[in-house]
Amino acid sequence: MLRLEGIKLNLDEKQAQLKVKAAARLRCPIEAITDLRILRRAIDAREGLQFVYTVAVAVKNENQVLRRCRDKRVTVYKPEQYHLPAPVACHTPPVVVGMGPGGLFAALVLAKCGLRPIVLERGADAGRRVSRSRNWCEGGRGTWCRVGRCVNCQCYMVSPWCAVACPMGMHCWCTRCL
Can you give the pTM of this predicted structure? Predict the structure, then answer.
């Protein structure tokens, strides 16, 4: 697969145009592109509003296309997959300070590695936070922030509106799958 960075689409253009623009950047026919995955989407507001995409493209005769292209924004793409380290033995439990998104995710990873982390939080207890909130999804300062899995690629992520916790049944998507 090849990674193409900086493909711009105006707000009125459809995502189907990505394939056309990727083919133009690679200097190959559209039919040569067998697969296109969006890796990142950003908004550029410097010269009018535009979406800026980074995509991974599978093409026929990849080596020939890469040699012919000669564009610095086109590179070889190898997807990285994070694997948790092997379980370890520890005499003292690790301490995670803070129950925000980062703290909850750190505690989850430590627990999956076979440790029993202690999570410290300096705010009010969860009962008082919930009583002050109007909505289940608006818990104060990390109260209802859940660790979930992306609907598309099943990676772990932290989201306050995770499908596991949210009573509205919203689905989570990681930034790679948006």
Answer: 0.52
